[in-house]
Specification:
With 478 residues, the chain is of the alpha/beta class. It has helices at 2-18, 26-34, 41-59, 62-65, 83-94, 118-138, 140-155, 177-197, 232-236, 251-266, 269-283, 303-320, 354-358, 371-379, 385-394, 404-420, 427-447, 457-469, 471-477, and strands at residues 73-76, 98-102, 204-211, 243-250, 285-289, 323-326, 329-332, 337-342, 362-365, 399-402, 452-455.
Amino acid sequence: MGTATGNKQNGEKGKAVKGIFGQLTPSQIVEELDKYIIGQENAKKSVAIALRNRWRRQQVSESMKDEIMPNNIIMIGPTGVGKTEIARRISKLANAPFIKVEASKFTEVGYVGRDVESMIRELTDLSVNIVKTEKQIEVQEKAEENTVERILDIILPQMKKRNGEPKQANAEEGISQADAEEANSKTREKFRAQLKEGKLDDRIIELDLSGDSMPMLQVLGPIGLEEMGLNLQDLFGNIMPKKSRKRKLTISEAKKLLLQEEAQKLIDMDTVIKEAVDKVQNSGIVFIDEIDKIAGSGKQSSNADVSREGVQRDLLPIVEGSTVITKYGPVKTDHVLFIASGAFHISKPSDLIPELQGRFPIRVELNSLNEDDFYKILTQPQNALIKQYTALLETENVKLKFKDETIREIAKVAAEVNEQVENIGARRLHTILTNLLEDILFQVPDKNKKNVIEINKELVNEKLSKIVKNRDLSRYIL
């Protein structure tokens, strides 16, 4: 009996963090990432294993579950090669709360700046919103029914006596109470049908809306109450009475506001918070970008290096596993997955303090992108840049066509500029395509008469050759 109950609990917890990746093997996760990211097979493989391990952890016995720590990953590679994109895509695959932070925005405790614990508070806020949205979808149908009833009560208010009792039928009018109720019911049904069909959407009604009795209060200073996980609205909300205010709205506008109110009434926020905190603790993902900016330079210690080391030491307990106080209660970070990334042009991963290095056992080096990679990036992903620009111009009834040799020429130019000026990876394609299509994007709405515009190799050479050859120009324009 006890084993069955334990398995059931494991199953329920597994559902909370399972998401899509619980049904996908690591190779299938890589296939999903391949739809958006070109190359970087080692990085994809590492994150796929990390994701699958999170699901595996939910299936083991309770005694072993707490002992299994996440394999945090550090990605090493130049900018624009897909580090952030990999992290962003796995969060969608995992249906997990995900937050991206920049390590350089944090400062050592005692200095003005962001507190490292704020990343967990933001992650928890995000998780609460995710779970709340899921619960709202579950109660949507009931909330819509309640909304319709509230609007009908406004349109057809029940006749009442002075003492508040329903008005009885008047014998002199020759109408019995039963007939009056039947007539009222028929009228109500008629209005309900019209309401659902949208025939009354433009009608104006007066609505009582609950409003906050006290204005939003903001605490000025290095660390506000929000940073400490406290909210004045929550603290004083139950003490100060809530006022209601009347507003005149169309029924279509009133539907939206009342639907939110009704959905909120049907949701148990204690359950939402409990699930959200569990989601953070078991499936939360924190992506720490620019971690190389808080690494020491490897040279003789300076004040800047000491300050960077202070941020690392503040970061260490969060990554290592600690309890952060949020406005939703304590949140443990022991099983949150941390993925760090950095270019490490000046510093090296070994310049991080040893304790922090030890908390990122999986190291993955991402490769620089070459001409062939750029060609694939322009054509293969579901969100390829050429597909994006084609879709944008289709809104102007213009078909944009790229010859294969044109795309290869663009890829060649991107690789050359990255090599000669500064390597910013795939982001170079954005600047090149913007310069290439600038005139077309500007002129099309006013004077275009063609339904098809073909981008050929000659146009690429005409638009970009001078900029590429002039190093000063390419530095500033591309």
